[in-house]
Amino acid sequence: MEKTPFKAESKRMLEMMIHSVYSHREIFLRELISNASDAIDKLYYKTLSDNTLAFEKDNYYIKVVAEKTTRTLTILDTGIGMTKDELENNLGVIAQSGSLVFKTENEAQDGHDIIGQFGVGFYSAFMVADLVTVTSRALGSETAFKWESSGVDGYTIVPAEKDVVGTEVILKIKASTEDENYDDYLDEYRLRSLIKKYSDFIRYPIKMELTQQRPKEGSEDEFEEYREEQTINSMVPIWRKNKNELTDEDYENFYMEKHYGFDKPLKHIHISVDGAVRYNAILYIPEKTPFDYYTKEYEKGLELYSNGVLIMSKSPDLLPDYYSFVKGMVDSEDLSLNISREILQQDKQLKLIAKNIKSKITSQLQSLLKDDREKYEAFYKAFGTQLKYGVYSDYGSNKDVLQDLLMFYTAKEKKMVTLEEYVSRMPEDQKYIYYASGETYERIDKLPQTELVSEKGYEILYFIEDVDEFAIKMLMTYKDREFKSVSSGDLGIAADESQEQTAEAANENQSLFDTMKDILAERVKDVRISKRLKNHPVCLTADGEITIEMEKVLKTMPNNPNIKAEKVLEININHEVFQSLKAAFEHDKEKLRLYTNLLYNQALLIEGLPIHDPVEFTNDICKIMV
Length: 626
Ligand code: ADP
Known about the structure:
Blueprint lengths: L7 H12 L7 H23 L12 E6 L4 E6 L6 H8 L5 H10 L5 H7 L10 E9 L6 E6 L5 E6 L5 E8 L14 H12 L6 E10 L7 E9 L16 H10 L7 E10 L3 E9 L15 E5 L2 E7 L11 E6 L8 H6 L1 H24 L1 H20 L6 H4 L4 E4 L4 E4 H7 L7 E5 L3 H5 L5 H5 L4 E4 L2 H10 L1 E2 L2 E5 L11 H12 L1 H11 L5 E4 L8 E6 L4 H8 L10 E6 L4 H12 L1 H19 L6 H12 L1
Parallel strand pairs: 1-7, 11-13, 16-17, 16-19, 20-22
Antiparallel strand pairs: 1-2, 2-6, 3-4, 3-6, 4-5, 7-8, 9-10, 10-13, 11-12, 14-15, 14-17, 18-19, 21-22
Helix pairs in contact: 2-6, 9-10, 10-15, 19-20
């Protein structure tokens, strides 16, 4: 029979699956069982809204059968089943194909990472089987269909016989090789322990026939074998269990089974509330930033159950945007089952739950910061940017919740510090919380503008992300201390003797500065004596609210309103260069023009800003060399 080829991406995924050296082949069983469980969930949900269907609890189960002689492993369920079209569309195409494209273009080709990061549901069957047969009869259908594939070269679908609604997946287990022992997946006791390990909390019974031993009748020391069907899993959903009964591994397995992420969770939060609103929740903070996290495609949300029945797989109303990285589920008996998305949004109970969840996450993050700094820093590395967006968005209405979760690097401490730590270390005479912006820590280290503040021994927060300065502008103050850019006009550092001299020098040299300003025309607002420079000859700073870094960020935005910083060229009068400027001003105006342009361009370079005319700049340098 003619085979239907897989779509290109699915084919690539399958190839990787078949050839990859993947250390966790065993997870295929978890994947197939959780598909089976989802299918029963769907059926159960249908029966709740359709009076003609009855849900007989005993009729719903998953069964695992291993047959050594034929090398087949069967996973069958009494779930909702699939029509011919569904077999075609669900099994012929990889669900997360978008992520596959992203991954293969950006990362290693060996497939290990892809499988590890995304999980692949049904396709994982091909890690252990060289032939996969799915026979399925959909709810409401009299006929069944059989989908079959032995891998990359495609699949077939033909009509089939099946007495009851549901799905049967038959895997023809690969022959063992020197490196891989596939026989394990036909061994009843091994399978049983895999079910216990990965699928214990599935709410429907997972049944297996097992060979048991019992004493032979009439004999004391002789035993006989007999077969008995057993339910392997405990069936109590994990969120209904007592926290004390659960291990970290249980929570990790649930995370994997649910595909909340394909990393390991950094932290889990198990909540049981029995108050004005009753609910159980298991929430996770992932360890790694999902690849699409900072894109429009990323959807936040938690799974929502009403008394054990899944009613929504991603309820966005349960999480504020700034905690959009949180994964997990909520189950509440107080929510109506047949509730529509629109009504749900207005639901008072749901709002209460969301509020409660938000404060739980906040307090858990706070205690992580307090009790396990290393873990918190790992979390912050993955999701700190989102917290900063949170401070900035909604006109700063969440800043009180978030400000104590923020961290910034400082060169003085050589590590991340919280605002609280910064303020608690401030010397008495320090008026402001200082920050410096730049592309990298190394570049900020070299910024001339930091010289005075550093010399005073004050700590400087390093801002290297676009959002940093905007978030801080929204905060305005922390514990009544204002934030101040090291490049801003008034640094609030008391004038010492040398600075009085500066005032005098400013008067004396005013006409020099005026001429320089004329030379630079609209490029700068002013040319001034610097109070902050110690060793460098020049730097650029900005008057007013918009700093140079902010201008850079705004420039990259769509519909850029062309907001510009009011740039000021600061000159260090204690630098030898200043003497040359003075001399040129008196004797050679052309030279003054040359020097002024050179210094201005140097200041631009230090700031990481583009030079308007690089050719002219290099020509200018040549002029002073000859
Ligand atoms: P995912 O489960 O992540 O969507 P899978 O590749 O595991 O991806 O499965 C694809 C789809 O095939 C499922 O979403 C579901 O609609 C369907 N499916 C898989 N297994 C079953 C099953 N046992 N019964 C009914 N439908 C199934």
